[in-house]
Amino acid sequence: MKKMLWSAAALFFLAGCSNELYEEAMKKGKLALADADFDKARSSFELALEEEPDDPDASRMAEQLRLLEKTETAAEEGNWSEVSKQASLLLEKDNLQSQLKEQAEEYTAAAEAETKAAQKVAEQLAGVQSKVSEGSYEEASVLLDELEADESLQAALLAQQEEVDAARSDIEASKKEQQDKEQAEAVQAAADAAAATAVAEASKGWTYEDQLDDLSGRTADFDYIVETGTTAQALEAEQTRYKQWDNLLNEIYGTLKSELPNDEFVQLRAAQREWITYRDESAAEAASSYAGTDWEDVQYKMTQAYLTEIRCYELVDRYMD
Q1: First CA to last CA across the chain, in angstroms?
Q2: pLDDT class for 235, splitting at 50, 70, 90?
Q3: Can you say how many angstroms the Cα of residue 182 is from the centroid of all Cα atoms in its chain?
Q4: For 182-193, what is the mean pLDDT?
């Protein structure tokens, strides 16, 4: 009998302790909620719910605060569609605490604002790409600068940073491509002008010695491009230099073909074929020092141009003096 009384007393004591823990947790939760300490409030109401799993007040408060936590997490991640979703679920709850309602409404407003900002950023990036497609690179750059300077769009810009960086890269790459094209056109124009001058001067009775010296002086202008330009520009310059010397070599060779005795020209033709093999093998050997680099093709054409220039002088000195 005493044992039964002791067990009943123990149960009553434990129940009393449990009720005290519940009451204390609920009290702390409400105080934390009033202080807008939502994490502490949620922990307190969840503790109260552990003590009284069927308590509707603890359950309701814990659930509302969990929804607020999900809303906050989504906002920190910049997932504004999820913020809107979780805030809406919270606002639909019955008996929603005023502090939580205020928070949910603020997050809803923030989600709407950030969604509009994201749309604005996307639209302006599309405008930037449109300008790039039109070839208006400076306008595209100005639009992108203005977009990045807009303080109201910083969060949306951060969320679309990859797209912003890609747009900037597209602008810079396109501007460089345009500059390279203009440089190449300038080189070609200079080459065409030089060729036209050579033809005009030749018609005035210039000797081949004069043409060699003139072309040597004009092609020396390409040295500046090779020394200061990009690899692509250097390659273009050396290709043009080689083409000009090769054209003059072919002209000299054609003149010798018509003027030399047949037996002497047959010897020249054999020697010329051997020289062509020597030129290309020498160019390949020189270029091999830069194998696998962007300069390999530049060195190949540079060597071809140099040896062709020397060959022009050799033929003129030997057969035309």
Answers
A1: 142
A2: very high
A3: 23
A4: 75
CA nearest to 308, candidates 248, 235, 234: 248
- Total number of domains in the chain: 3
In angstroms, rounded to a whole number, what is the distance separating the alpha carbons of residues 15 and 9?
10
Burial class, 255, CB count within 10 angstroms (exposed 0-12 / middle 13-18 / buried 19+): middle
Work out the pLDDT band at 4, boundaries 50, 70, 90.
very low
Same domain? 167 vs 187:
no
Length of the chain in terms of residues written: 321
Helix (H, G, I), strand (E, B) or coil at 220: coil
Q: Is residue 53 part of a domain?
A: yes
Give the Cα separation of 86 and 74 in Å (integer): 9
Residues 83/71, Cβ–Cβ less than 8 Å: yes
**Which residues lie below 8 Å from residue 76, measured CB to CB, with a gap of 6+?**
none
pLDDT band at 299 (very low <50, low <70, confident <90, very high): very high
- What radius of gyration do the chain's Cα atoms show? 42
In the DSSP assignment, the letter for residue 229 is S
pLDDT at residue 203, as a whole number: 44
pLDDT digits (tens, 9 = 90+) for 57-74: 888 998 999 999 999 999
177 part of a folded domain: no
| Long-range Cβ contact pairs of 256-259 (< 8 A, separation 24 or more) | 256/315, 256/319, 256/320
* Residue 233 structure tokens: 């520009």
Q: What is the pTM of this model?
A: 0.46
Instruction: Extract the tokens encoding 127.
Output: 């405008």
Residues spanned by the domain of 29: 2-111
Residue 218 near residue 194 (C-beta atoms within 8 A):
yes
Q: Could you tell me if 222 and 261 lie in one domain?
A: yes
